[in-house]
Write a structure and sequence with these properties.
17 strands; six-stranded mixed β-sheet; Aldehyde Ferredoxin Oxidoreductase Protein, subunit A, domain 3; globular; alpha+beta; 3 domains
Length: about 600
């Protein structure tokens, strides 16, 4: 069981039973762990078309083979379930220290089933696993519940939901270590629907290594590469992920005012450099991470809190036309406390501001809240974030996300989302390859599962013409497959700033044994991507959902270095389906499934209604 602990917890919250099941090592290796293993369990155990917030849905927390192993960035874990925001597979990733500490209890994954009749939390201390009453914790924010449980269980690590998860907001996140989030897809609402407030872990076990000396040597090699890389060893540790603000803006790809513009002369006011100069207290690295992109910042009142990532700085900043770092830091803190996805939260406020600007939302709709929806109102951005987290007043409508909000006014196209999940901080009209990854992403609007910003803007592994369509579909496929590998083995995608496919093969084989080569490991990522696609097809999410908001394919960029461009999705999509080994309807072929060892899922190869 090198790399794997060999045990899976199955927790039925309805009848309060806990079972320890052996991990099927052959399946774990085939799907790598974490993301891949979780999707496999969802596909096999959850019936089609269940309500994401019903007892029939399952909520899975899973680690990768390298989570907790002595290799760089090995603190990651995944949450896998069916998304209440999108109806697709939900695959949310988080770092910090919780994942490695969970694996140290001797377990690879937890499968939560059913629903508690009252609030509970799960406590795991090595082989001791208990369901405990959480009635006294219900209603608490992330920091409050973490503080209470750390006091009760010394040296334990806490994963929890805040009020947003309890109130079933489809943008609710799962929080760990107070300010780390498995953020996207409403996974916190699924946890809340099960009356599960927290999972507390305390472990003493170590990951078994295939070759200890080889692992040590390989780890040192990879750390050296990362530390010498200009992004992983320079920009990210120096300025955090917000180092991207100026870079992305200077390329004319920074969405402003809900993607109505793509460049602002005020970007430096919310840059990583400005955060470092005026607000940074210290770095906040994850477990075994030499990159240390996490930030700790000081609020205007002197409170010390976790700092915002690039996406958060953008969503509450430029997307709302706000350039006040104190407000952005406070909105980020509120999202951490209430357990909200910062991308969806900020982007939903931006959509509301456009709805107000265009006269769909009236003054009388928000009069009782005492807040405006005017562009650039920093105080309002903070106020709406709080109301969204507590579902107060108009915040109750905002808490449903931008798609449902805009749809309620008859203009769903004002929601800048894919599959009802809000798009992140890059305008695809200026990055054609990145745009195709948005449209086809299995979890809806997402940047991180196929980060084509790397080659199109940052030059990793080579610099591509960002406006060109040539070869972009094939490049996107590789990025999708490689990211599925990285997520599933339990490492951070930021490690790709320096590391390449052979580096991940080196680390996996040193820890787990000589199982994979470059070709077969990337194929494992392709297997995982295709299984997610099959899950979505089973749920009725077909090629008609592989689209971008109308604005991005019909309206040219209005200003900045990408001015005049639209996204050419109609040209890229057929090519993407082709390089994937899918038919023209975006359905994997039988030959593709056979090649990937997915023959058992052929029954889901149902053509769409076209």
């Amino acid at each position: 069981m090198n790399g794997y602990m060999g045990k899976v917890l199955r927790v039925n919250l309805t009848d309060r039973t806990i079972k320890v099941e052996p991990l099927d090592l052959e399946v774990a290796q085939k799907y790598l762990g974490a993301r891949g293993l979780g999707v496999k369990i969802m596909m096999d155990e959850v019936p089609a078309n269940v309500d994401p917030l019903s007892e029939e849905n399952k909520f899975i927390i899973a680690t990768g083979a390298l989570t907790g192993a002595p290799v760089p960035t090995s603190g990651r874990y995944m949450v896998i379930t069916k998304s209440p925001l999108t109806g697709t597979i939900a695959i949310a990733n988080s770092g910090g220290y919780w994942g490695a500490n969970f694996k140290a209890t001797g377990h690879d994954a937890i499968i939560f089933e059913g629903r508690g009749d009252k609030p509970v939390y799960l406590y795991i201390e090595d082989d001791n696993v208990e369901i405990k009453d959480a009635s006294h914790l219900w209603g608490m924010t992330s920091s409050e519940v973490t503080e209470a449980l750390e006091k009760e269980h010394e040296k334990a690590k806490v994963l929890c939901i805040g009020p947003a998860g309890e109130m079933l907001s489809p943008m609710a996140a799962v929080m760990n270590d107070i300010d780390r989030a498995a953020g996207r897809g409403g996974v916190g609402a699924v946890m809340g629907s099960k009356n599960l407030k927290a999972v507390v872990v305390k472990g003493t076990k170590k990951v078994s290594l295939f070759d200890e000396e080889r692992t040590k040597k390989v780890s040192q090699e990879k750390i050296k590469i990362l530390r010498e890389d200009p992004v992983a060893g320079g920009g990210l540790p120096s300025y955090g992920s917000a180092v991207l603000v100026n870079i992305i803006n200077e390329s004319g790809v920074l969405p402003v005012r809900n993607f109505q513009q793509s460049y602002t002369e005020k970007a430096d006011l919310i840059s990583g450099e400005t955060m470092t100069e005026k607000h940074l207290v210290r770095k906040n690295p994850c477990y075994r991470c030499p990159i240390a992109c996490g930030r700790i910042v000081k609020l205007a009142d002197g409170t010390i809190v976790g700092g915002p990532e690039y996406e958060t700085v953008w969503s509450f900043g430029a997307d709302c036309d706000v350039y006040d770092y104190d407000a952005i830091n406070e909105a980020n803190m509120l999202c951490n406390e209430y357990g909200l996805d910062t991308i969806s939260a900020g982007a939903t406020i931006a959509a509301a501001m456009e709805l107000y600007e265009k006269g769909y939302i009236k003054d009388e709709d928000i009069e009782a809240d005492g807040l405006s929806l005017k562009w650039g109102d920093a105080e309002a951005v903070v106020g709406w974030t709080k109301k969204m987290g507590l579902r107060e007043g108009f915040g109750d409508k905002l808490a449903e996300g931008s798609y449902r909000l805009a749809e309620s006014y008859g203009v769903p196209e004002i929601s800048m989302s894919v599959k009802k999940q809000e798009l992140p901080a890059y305008d695809p009209r200026g990055v054609q390859g990145h745009g195709i990854t948005y449209a086809v992403n299995n979890r809806g609007g997402c940047h991180i599962k196929g980060y084509m910003i790397s080659p199109e803007i940052l030059g990793y592994p080579e610099k591509l013409d960002r406006f060109s369509l040539e070869g972009k579909a094939a490049y996107a496929k590789i990025f999708h497959d490689l990211t599925a590998v990285i997520d599933s083995i339990g490492l951070c995608v930021f490690s790709t700033f320096g590391l390449n496919l052979p580096d991940y093969v080196d680390m996996y084989n040193a820890v787990c044994g000589d199982i994979y080569n470059d070709e077969t490991l990337l194929e494992a990522g392709e297997r995982i991507w295709n299984l997610e696609k099959l899950f979505n097809l089973r749920e009725g999410i077909d090629s008609t959902h592989d689209k971008l908001p109308r604005r991005l394919v019909e309206e040219p960029v209005a200003n900045g270095p990408s001015k005049g461009h639209v996204h050419h999705l109609n040209e890229l999509l057929p090519e993407y389906y082709s390089v994937r080994g899918w038919d023209e309807e975006g359905i994997p072929t039988e030959e593709t499934l056979e090649r990937l060892g997915l023959e058992e899922y052929k029954k889901y190869l149902v053509l769409s209604n076209k």
